From TrEMBL:
<dbReference type="GO" id="GO:0016491">
    <property type="term" value="F:oxidoreductase activity"/>
</dbReference>
<dbReference type="InterPro" id="IPR002937">
    <property type="entry name" value="Amino_oxidase"/>
</dbReference>
<feature type="domain" description="Amine oxidase">
    <location>
        <begin position="56"/>
        <end position="469"/>
    </location>
</feature>
<protein>
    <recommendedName>
        <fullName>Amine oxidase domain-containing protein</fullName>
    </recommendedName>
</protein>
<dbReference type="InterPro" id="IPR036188">
    <property type="entry name" value="FAD/NAD-bd_sf"/>
</dbReference>
<dbReference type="Pfam" id="PF01593">
    <property type="entry name" value="Amino_oxidase"/>
</dbReference>
């Protein structure tokens, strides 16, 4: 039997859609009568679904609803999409808001992102580690086999450590992502010790490398996330899109219907009218938007907790833990003032404040004007008690010890980014597969429900949209 239910949204609504369901077929048809332009009044007040937050999770939810022809409005309080994945253009340089890398093996990203049009620029697969007053290379054992053989006797861990890296690649490759996220968890540091890695390789390589990825040099982050990232790094490349990291969210936004994204639109409250099965979202400017199918809250965890206060919210964090923060300092230099390889430099010395750095234009020349170099330096934590100027002086002093004062003193400071909320804290206990349903008609997504990665955010957005669609099918059948 096929049941056909048709919604008629109000006559002023730019959308109409019909929903047909049968035990085997669920099909939505979306007919935009007219498209509405971003920030051009009159804005639609009523739609199919409302998504609050246009970071990767909100964009993923929108992409999924759009692929099912569900009308939606995607709101963001800021002036652009992308959330934490943004790039600024400053004096001809592209500055990502914090050090970010796109790993091509991210499984969800492979499904929803068109890699070809991003013009991905690759890092060297490995790292150069500053330890004992000189640099040592750690290389991917397959992609840079000869470098890896050459590095076998260097002081970054013992020969046993290097063999263990190989066996750990095999260990994670034999597990599905599902198995990784379902596995027992301990802190990454405990797991590395349990696997037999020496203190030496933990402090010279794992702390700066994975500490830089998790913004957690104590390596308290769950072993599940370590295994997931380790697996992605083993099979994928570390890259930057030629037009900046924001090219990733911008690509997703570009495929959404014209006018479905409302910027500078901050949601201040959500109201669920259970009797009429209608959800409304109030904006900072007083406007009220209503939705027929549901609201997806795709904001950072602390904002979500506030927006959902008083709701039947089971999504609250398992326990309150300090969030992960970082500072990223950009410098410019001339081409003759730097080494030329596209490699990530790590601080393995255990001293100083720099965690990692790289010459961005060596990886992606499009990040700077011709013959100019962009230098990116990352610190872990927020350094709240130190001014930008003080941090810059310390970084220049420290890197002079790495590359020589003659080179580093010529670099010019360009901009400092302090990112207070870079990632949620994902130390155990974690649940990286949280249910996105707060209640029928209200859903959440964001990296705090899955893994604090681009991929986790994309997965969580899709799951929230799937949940909304499923609930509506159940209600209507
Ligand atoms: C410096 C830095 C480096 C990173 N590096 C990597 C990396 O190399 N690899 C990796 O995989 N991941 C990295 N991450 C993590 C990754 O960026 C995040 O996990 C992911 O982007 C989170 O997406 P999200 O949609 O969950 O949240 P967000 O990107 O935070 O999106 C939330 C959105 O909600 C909007 N919003 C908030 N409140 C409201 C409101 N009231 N009304 C309307 N809109 C609102 C915000 O403006 C924002 O756009 C990094 C993060 C940072 C900050």
């Amino acid at each position: 039997m096929t049941i056909i239910t048709t919604f008629s949204l109000s006559s002023t609504n730019p959308f109409s859609f019909s929903f047909s369901s049968s035990p085997s077929i669920n099909r939505f048809r979306f007919n935009p009568h007219s498209s509405f332009q971003l920030s051009t009044p009159p804005q639609p007040k009523h739609t199919g679904a409302i998504i609050i937050g246009a970071g990767l999770s909100g964009l993923s939810a929108a992409t999924h609803l759009n692929s099912h022809n569900i009308p939606f409005l995607l709101l963001d309080s800021s002036n652009s999409v992308g959330g934490r994945v943004r790039t600024d253009s400053v004096d001809g340089f592209l500055l990502d808001r914090g050090f970010q890398i796109f790993i091509t093996a991210y499984p969800e990203a492979r499904k929803v992102i068109d890699y070809d049009s991003l013009n991905l620029c690759k890092f060297y697969s490995g790292a150069r580690i500053f330890y004992g007053n000189r640099f040592h290379t750690v290389a991917h054992p397959i992609r840079h086999f000869f470098d890896s053989v050459k590095s076998i006797a260097n002081p970054i861990g013992s020969i046993k450590d290097k063999l263990l890296i190989g066996s750990n690649i095999v260990r994670v490759l034999t597990k599905s992502d599902q198995e990784i996220f379902d596995s027992d968890e301990i802190a990454t540091i405990e797991m590395l010790k349990k696997l037999g890695f020496s203190d030496s390789i933990i402090s010279t390589f794992f702390r700066p490398f994975f500490g830089g990825i998790f913004f957690d040099t104590e390596l308290e982050t769950t072993s599940r996330l370590f295994d997931f990232i380790f697996k992605c790094l083993a099979v994928g490349e570390n890259t930057l899109p030629a037009n900046g990291i924001s090219a990733i969210p911008e690509q997703l936004a570009a495929s959404l219907p014209t006018g479905s994204v409302l910027l500078n639109s901050e949601a201040v409250s959500i109201d669920l009218n259970h009797s009429e099965s209608l959800q409304s979202v109030k904006l900072r400017n007083g406007d009220v938007l209503t939705s027929e199918l549901g609201v997806i809250v795709a904001v950072q965890e602390p904002v979500a907790v506030n927006l959902l206060a008083g709701k039947n919210n089971k999504i609250n964090p398992v326990q309150r833990k300090p969030v992960r923060s970082t500072v990223c300092i950009y410098f410019t230099a001339n081409r003759d003032q730097i080494p030329l390889d596209p490699v990530l430099y790590l601080n393995g010395s255990g001293k100083g404040i720099v965690n990692n750095m790289f010459f961005v234009t060596n990886v992606a020349p499009s990040y700077g004007p011709p013959n100019k170099v962009l230098v990116s330096v990352s610190l872990i934590g927020l350094f709240e008690n130190e001014s930008d100027d003080d941090l810059t002086v310390k970084v220049v002093q420290e890197l002079s010890g790495w590359f020589g004062e003659e080179m580093v003193r010529k670099w010019k400071h360009l901009r400092t980014y302090r990112v207070g909320f870079a990632q949620p804290n994902q130390s155990p206990p974690t649940d990286l597969k949280k249910n996105p349903r707060v209640e029928p008609g209200l859903y959440v997504c964001g990296d705090y429900l899955t893994s604090a990665t681009f991929d986790g955010a994309l997965v969580s957005g899709r799951r929230a949209a799937e949940c909304l669609l499923k609930d509506r099918v159940v209600t209507l059948v």
